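Minutes, structural biology subgroup

Action item carried over from last meeting: produce the structure token record for Riboflavin biosynthesis RibT protein (Metabacillus malikii). EB confirmed the sequence was re-checked against the source entry. Recorded below for completeness.
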Amino acid sequence: MLIRFKKSFEKIAMGLLSFMPAEKDLKQLQQTIKQYETAEDWQLFLWKQDEDIIGAIGVIFNGENTVEVQHISVNPSHRGQGIGKQMVNALKEMYKHKTVIPNHETEAFFEKCLDTDNC
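Output recorded by EB:
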């Protein structure tokens, strides 16, 4: 289930986002989290399964009709189970009147999801 990021989940969110290649640097990661906390057009969602948060998906709203996925990450111990695809599908359902697209960082994942059932 997708839940909205809140400050109390900051360490978990930072841990998940740190798996993204562009977020390896701590200062960059801290800036990214700050953007999600303060920018109105940035939104971070966390994936909660049972009682654990095991994934994160971050978007930026481009205009009125486009939601761009800029971050997507799943805890390594839960990869290969379709969690990423579930997050993307939940996001598409949440914003069904908008177009959900990847950015250059998440494009390969989106293509993999289209090609297989195991992303």
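Discussion: The radius of gyration is 13 Å.
Next step: EB to file the record with the rest of the batch.
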